[in-house]
Amino acid sequence: MINRYIRAIAGTFIIISVLLAMYVNINWLWFTLFVGANLLQSAFTQWCLMEKFLHKLGVKEGGDSCTT
Q: What are the φ/ψ torsions at residue 60 (nearest 5 degrees)?
C-alpha cells in the first residue's frame, strides 16, 4: 500500500511541477529534477524520505499486489 502512495505522490509532484514550469516559471523544472533524483537514489539505497513521512501518518505496509 505504501508503495502505491509513494508512486502517486511522486507522479503528482512531477505533473504539477511540469505544469508550473510551462505556465509560471521554467525554474519549477528544478523541482521535477529533485523528485526524479530522489526516486533514482531510492532504487539503489532502498531508503525513501516520503516512506518515513507516510509511516508517521499511519500508512501501513502490504497490499501492494496488482491483483487486489
A: -90, 155
| Torsion from C-alpha of 42, 37, 59, 18, nearest 10 degrees | -160
- In 3D, which of 19, 20, 18 has the Cα closest to residue 32? 18
Reported as a single tens digit per residue, the pLDDT across 32-55 is 999 999 999 999 999 988 999 999
- Is-above-0.85 flag for pTM? no
Give dist(CA 13, CA 35) in Å, integer: 8
Place of cell 525554474: 27
Q: How many residues does the chain have?
A: 68
